[in-house]
Amino acid sequence: MKKLIFSIFFVLGIAVTTEAQTKPVLTATIKTPNALCESCKTRITDYLKRYDGILDILVYFRKGETKVKYITDRTDIEQIKTAIANCGYDADDVVAEPEAYDRLPKSCKKFEDGGGHPKPKTPPPGNQ
Known about the structure:
Elements: H1 2-20, E1 25-31, H2 38-48, E2 54-60, E3 65-71, H3 77-86, H4 98-103
Antiparallel strand pairs: 1-3, 2-3
C-alpha cells in the first residue's frame, strides 16, 4: 500500500514539474515587403532556423509577410526583425542591412533598385 501511494505521488510530482516547464509561445506577423519570390522565402526560412526559440516560419511572399512562431523566453520580436534585416530584407520598421541587401540576387531586390519585383498595379475602378 505504501508503494502504491508513493508511486502516485511520484507520478503527480513529475506531471506538475513537466507542466511548470511549459514556455509561452507567440505568433507574430511581420511585413516583409521586398520578400516576393520562392528564393526569398527559402533564404528567410533558412536564416531564421538558426535562431534558438523559433519554432515555425511561414513566409507568404505573395502577401509580403512572414509569420513566426517563437518561444518568448528565448527570443523576442525585435531580435527576429533584426535577423530578417540581417538577411537582407525589410522587416516592419527595421530596414534591411545594406551589405546583406547588396548580396541578394538582382531578382530579389526592390524594383526601384533594378530588381525584379515591380509593385502590383491595381486595376482602374470598374475594370475588374
